[in-house]
Amino acid sequence: MNEYSSGAILFTNEDGKRKYVLVMEANGSYSFPKGHLEKNETHLEAAIREIKEETGVDAVIIPGLKRTIKYKVPNGNFKEVVYFVARYENQELNPTEKDILSAKKYDLEAAKALLKFDQLKDILIEIDFMLDMKGL
């Protein structure tokens, strides 16, 4: 059985520098805001909902930038996660999801250092480059 989640590489610009939002999960690991799709929900709808629940911000999805990863989870199932790219401005991070211990902004190097999985680091590096190319 496959599991499906959706989320976003969420960023803002602060003092002329791009900052990425990472959430600290209940187990102490860092990731991008994400979660399971609810009944009849699209990946995009789930990503927008999860951003709001896990960070408290209203974000705008950047069209044309998304990445999908697949991996095996401990129960033997396969999980597919679609990550959109989203931006927010002038809002405070305030997670309402009970499983999220914190949501904070980090520059690229700090975010890469906190992410445990290489797939997530690789996506972040690629998206950062693409945002540079788009002037975002």
What report would you give on this structure?
- The protein has helices spanning 43-55, 108-114, 118-134, and strands at 2-14, 17-25, 30-31, 34-36, 60-72, 78-87, 100-106.
- The protein is α+β, with helices and mostly antiparallel strands and 136 residues long.
- The chain has one domain (2-134): Nucleoside Triphosphate Pyrophosphohydrolase (Alpha-Beta Complex).
- It is globular and about 45 Å long.
- The model has no long low-confidence stretch (mean pLDDT 95).
Low-confidence stretches: none
- What level of helicity do the residues show? 25-40%
- Overall structural class, as computed from helix and strand content, comes to alpha+beta
Q: Superfamily at the CATH H level?
A: Nucleoside Triphosphate Pyrophosphohydrolase
Number of helices: 3
Number of domains: 1
Task: Give the integer mean of the pLDDT values.
Answer: 95
Query: How far apart, in Å, are the first and last alpha carbons?
Result: 38 Å
Report Rg. Answer: 14 Å
CATH-scheme architecture:
Alpha-Beta Complex
* DSSP E strands, number: 7
Quick one: biggest sheet?
7 strands, mixed
Shape: globular
Q: What is the H/E order?
A: EEEEHEEEHH
User: CATH first level: which class?
Assistant: Alpha Beta
Strand content: 35-45%
CATH fold description: Nucleoside Triphosphate Pyrophosphohydrolase
Short description:
By secondary structure, this protein is α+β, with helices and mostly antiparallel strands. It has helices at residues 43-55, 108-114, 118-134, and strands at 2-14, 17-25, 30-31, 34-36, 60-72, 78-87, 100-106. The longest helix has 17 residues, at 118-134.
